[in-house]
Amino acid sequence: MSEAREAAKAHWYLIQCKGGESFRAAENLTNQGFHVFHPLLEVEKKRGGKLRWVEEPLFPYYLFIRLDQMDDNWRPIRSTRGVLKLVSFGNTPTAVPTPLVEALIASGEQRQEQPSENVYFRAGEQVEIIDGPLSSLSGVFESAKGDERVIVLLNLINQQQRVELSSRQLRRSES
Length: 175
Hints:
Elements: H1 3-9, E1 11-17, H2 22-31, E2 35-37, E3 40-47, E4 50-57, E5 62-67, H3 75-78, E6 83-86, E7 88-89, E8 92-93, E9 95-96, H4 98-109, E10 126-129, E11 138-145, E12 149-156, E13 159-166, E14 170-172
Antiparallel strand pairs: 1-5, 1-6, 1-9, 2-5, 3-4, 7-8, 10-11, 10-14, 11-12, 12-13
């Protein structure tokens, strides 16, 4: 079967991981031959009294997996260490829109460090994400969380999600 035809049959799905085990789940699923995407975000954290850049999951407790309903054996997923469940509505796993996952993958590959700006936003203000896996998405500024972090509301996966970002990743929306 051609690669293009095979890719057309496969869809992205969302896996919910056990607390703090998304890295373990991603590694174990990859070792079993599954195609997994675990979007990460570089954040500045205080470790041992020093600020250091560390990678954290963009969506804590979640990762994406590409599966074909007809060809892939989904049973091992449920018993994989670190996996809690395949996100479903009713009894049917729900596919995540492919353009959303492709945009996350592409923006992660093009990640750039932005210069630090002291920009202040007001609650309810339209903002645009300019760096990181969610770059080019628009959202609504909700609140500041410390000096460098902010909470933004984004419409993702058919519902509004709170996302914590560095204030350096935002700019006021021009629209």
